[in-house]
Design a protein that fits this description.
By secondary structure, the chain is mainly β. About 5% of the residues lie in helices and about 60% in strands.
Amino acid sequence: MAQIGIESNSKGILMVPVLTPVARLDVAIERPLIVGSTESGLREVIPISGGSVSGPLLNGKVLAGGADWCLTRPGGVAEVWARYTIATDEGQIVSILNSGIAHTQADGSYTGRTVPRFEVASGPLDWLRNSIFIGTLLALPAGDRVQLEFFRVD
C-alpha cells in the first residue's frame, strides 16, 4: 500500500480531503434484545449474525458474534455503537468499532453516517489503523440487514 500524502497548495494551505472507497458491508442482523427505556431513550442490543465485505481495498466476511448497542432517542434519532469482526479473504482478522448517528425514514428504514475504527495486527492492513474513515449506513425496514459503505479520508 502506498504512503498517503497530504497535499498543500502553494500557500501551504491543506487541500480538500478526498474520499477513497474501501468496502461495502452487507450485514445480517437478528431481532434486537430490548433493554428498555432509559432516561436517554430506548436501548437495544442488535446481534450481528454474519455478512459479506466487498470492495476495492477490503474483501471478506462479517463474522457472527458482534452487536450494535443502539440507543434510539426521542424523536427517532439512533445512536449507533457497533462492535464486530471481519475475516479478510487472506485470512486476517479485523476488529471494527463503528459509531455514528442514524435517522428514521418514512419507510421504516434508518439512514446515517458512521465513523468506523479498525484494530488489526501489524502487517499489510496497517493502513486501517493509520487512516481516518467515514461510513454510510442503511438499515433496511425489514429489520434483518444493514448495508454499510466505508470510505478512507485522504
